[in-house]
Specification:
Layout lengths: L1 E7 L4 H17 L3 E7 L7 H4 L7 E6 L2 E6 L4 H9 L2
Parallel strand pairs: 1-2
Antiparallel strand pairs: 1-3, 3-4
């Protein structure tokens, strides 16, 4: 299954704007994609370090063991294209 991780912080304005589109896409694709939200300030899993998060919001898509990432917010269609590879 494809996994999508969104890295964000509560104080981040672009993160708050991006959250709305991310939530819409996650609801739409929830049957085929696992969505995870990681607050970089509260990350105890080490995922932010593992994926070398240097800017937020950052989205990581892991498909077939291969990860690709993109920093910055995306609109709904851009996010879907990034996830589905279209």
């Amino acid at each position: 299954m494809t996994r999508v991780i969104k890295f964000y912080a509560d104080w981040c304005g672009p993160c708050r704007i991006y959250a709305k589109d991310f939530d819409k896409v996650s609801e739409e694709l929830k049957e085929q994609v696992e969505f995870v939200n990681i607050n970089v300030e509260k990350d105890t899993s080490g995922l932010a370090a593992q994926y070398k998060v240097t800017g937020i919001p950052m989205t990581v898509v892991i498909k077939d063991g291969v990860a690709k990432s993109k920093t910055g917010r995306m609109d709904e269609s851009s996010l879907k294209n990034f996830i589905l590879g279209e």
